[in-house]
Amino acid sequence: MTQPIAIEWGFGQFGSISDREFADIQRLLFKISGISLSDAKKVLVTGRLAKRLRYLQLQSYAEYFTYITHPDHKQELQVAIDLLTTNETYFFREEKHFEFLQKTVFPQLERNPTVRIWSAACSSGEEAYTLAMLLQERFARRWKILASDISQRVLAIAAAGVYPEEAAEKIPKSYLAKYCLKGVRSQAGYLMVDKTLRDNMEFTQINLNQPLPETGMFDIIFLRNVLIYFNAETKRQVIAQLLKRLNSGGYFITSHSETASGLAEGLVTVRPSIYRKS
Fold first, then answer.
1. Burial of residue 176 (number of CB atoms within 10 Å: 0-12, 13-18, 19+)
2. 189-214 confidence digits (pLDDT tens)
3. Could you point out which of 49, 88, 96, 139 has its C-alpha 20 to 30 Å from the C-alpha of 128?
4. Spans in the chain with pLDDT lower than 70
5. Contact indicator for 159, 203 with CB cutoff of 8 Å
6. What pTM, to 2 d.p., does this model score?
7. Topology (CATH level 3) of domain 5-85
């Protein structure tokens, strides 16, 4: 007999999930996003979706699965995807990538009329805004950023550009003074990224596991902390799609914990996690 995993809440036991129910959610998330949830993620799935069962007054994950796969409930399906695909991010994360851009890549792009970068899994926007600060410093207004994610919830945060002050810990003080506005009165304790940067950025929902919309071409594509959630074939498919949007000689950057080596033709390793399209 299948044994459920249970989470204890303050109002009593709630949120049990069976192996079969978890497998249904695994398959659905993989079909939609290409993300492979390991069996070790059962507790995470239970914790993140249990509140939706309670809100919708459903009695089991089987009922919730039936609910979100109904054509009339696409909005709740998006809520489930948002809850299961959010990732940690922060300003100037893996800073060696940004040092490499400043010292090596930006000088190569000096003559470009416009420098274009795609933050292809931008989450709540910290990566994209980090890039924006660096671009503005070097190229003034001659740059554009496309920031995309599968989650509508985190994209809304990114587009607003409002963060708790403690999120600014790794932003250099000179950039903080120049590109971030400190909240007052009801916004005390928060900061907002300056409109000068936000005007050169586009935030849009894109599912990398589906055919890509028209985006134009890019000089640099960031795809960090995403490949670790894909199986080998999905990695190949996602990278192949993205490389079609990368200019010849352009740079493709993953996180330090990931690799694109051996997953795509015409991609030359410059250093670990940094690749160049030949």
1. middle
2. 999 999 999 999 999 999 999 999 99
3. 49
4. 1-15
5. yes
6. 0.87
7. Chemotaxis Receptor Methyltransferase Cher; domain 1 (1.10.155)
